């Protein structure tokens, strides 16, 4: 796989549906599970599958992502492995931004083809899953396919949010429709007894593709007006080429909006989570930080994930994820929340100085109540602050926080004075 396959991870567009988490960072750079970034998921899947050469294509708010990749993915001088950023750039041939997924790959192709490979694996940078790409590529080779699309069985309710495919008895895709709103009965597929038993009768594209090298070069060069894989390139390729459906039945979620992001993180606290971070065969790689172990005093913990370097004095933390360096004060209750933590510790001198001035410290203060909320990094939440998200709150974007689907998202670096009520 190391010699045959090159990975390309798409950094995504503006990520407005995940705002305000994407106001200062790209979607792949958003922290997940307390210590990782979203981009770590596809990169780790590649590394675990023996694919050690990757490009990450970026455009919007890429500084944080660039820094993370630079500080994280280092390989031996005697290895050909790399994870490199390819940012949108003006050239003599093209002075514009990436106009879509296919256009992004097209504009970067002169960098990509300078490497030896037979197959190119194209991935999204904002999905949560664990997949063995070796098996997918082997199936691609066995079927003599020109393109392979990873598909996942979904229910009728979910089918309207995806590109839906139909395949023949040899799993060759025969037709495709983007986000069907009507006529779903015509798109039912034989997904297997287990999937059908769960009502998952439709094959949805996961946005994960394998292309033969020369085929991809030709299809991008021949159709420069086509900017997107899912909407333009693939529907036409299905009519003309051998396109294989690789059915995946494990856990997979598209981190498309605040609600799905929130559910994915809190789902990690389940007794047996659908996404298994503790599987040694699917290690998740990220930046190695030399942080102390977390310190917890007088706290009742229930269904909680706590990253390194936390200082927790809360009375209760339940159904919550605490990110690196999270600090939570005494008599505070945190439920149904993702606290992302902070990028640094305040020194004892800083803490004393800020306390004397009556300023809030980095972290969450004393006697707070945090429920149905995401607290972005480096926030300063004073004492006696009450944040109670839920359907009773109207969606809206405010100076220090936003509300989406009843979830309160406190913006990165926001300062909530003591006594604030949301």
UniProtKB/TrEMBL annotation:
Keywords: ATP-binding, Carbohydrate metabolism, Glycogen metabolism, Nucleotide-binding, Nucleotidyltransferase, Transferase. Residues 7-270 form the Nucleotidyl transferase domain. The keyword Transcription regulation does not apply. It is an enzyme of class 2 (transferase). Its EC number is 2.7.7.27. The keyword Transmembrane does not apply. CDD domains: ADP_Glucose_PP (cd02508), LbH_G1P_AT_C (cd04651). PROSITE patterns: ADP_GLC_PYROPHOSPH_1, ADP_GLC_PYROPHOSPH_2, ADP_GLC_PYROPHOSPH_3. It holds the Pfam family NTP_transferase. GO terms for molecular function: nucleotidyltransferase activity. PANTHER family: GLUCOSE-1-PHOSPHATE ADENYLYLTRANSFERASE LARGE SUBUNIT 1, CHLOROPLASTIC-RELATED (PTHR43523:SF12), GLUCOSE-1-PHOSPHATE ADENYLYLTRANSFERASE-RELATED (PTHR43523). Belongs to the bacterial/plant glucose-1-phosphate adenylyltransferase family. This is Glucose-1-phosphate adenylyltransferase. It comes from Pedobacter ginsengiterrae. The lineage of its organism: Bacteria, Pseudomonadati, Bacteroidota, Sphingobacteriia, Sphingobacteriales.
